[in-house]
Design a protein that fits this description.
- By secondary structure, the chain is mainly β.
- It has one domain.
- The protein has 1 helix and 10 strands; from the N terminus they run βββββαβββββ.
- The longest helix is centred in the middle third of the chain and has 11 residues.
- The two termini are 24 Å apart.
Length: 107
């Protein structure tokens, strides 16, 4: 089970810097840098916090999908890393495109 660190403060899946979404998807067609990727599993806590908390259990991510074909860690759509970091440069994120996979490495 991968460990997904998250510093996207207003994501409903983020609890104390750890992602508790049961499935994560990282996207970024033709990405060359981590800034060209995004966590498409981002959910803004302002509208979905109570739903997310009732839908998820206390387990961390058990499926880390990577749709970034240019990432060295992508093995047939699955991330091979044990620890991944999702981050953003903004204090509050409104769209998944404002997030990125800090663990991305161009192959």
């Amino acid at each position: 089970m991968p460990s997904v660190g998250c510093n996207v403060n207003n994501c409903a899946h983020n609890t104390n810097g750890t992602c508790y979404a049961n499935k994560i998807s990282v996207n970024g067609k033709k990405a060359r840098t981590s800034n060209n990727t995004c966590c498409s599993s981002f959910v803004n806590e302002s509208g979905y916090n109570s739903f997310t908390n009732s839908a998820l259990d206390s387990n961390q991510c058990n499926s880390l999908n990577c749709n970034v074909k240019t990432c060295a860690h992508n093995a047939s759509g699955i991330c091979t890393l044990g620890d991944v970091a999702i981050t953003s440069q903004a204090d509050r994120v409104n769209l998944s495109s404002e997030t990125y996979c800090q663990s991305f490495r161009y192959k």
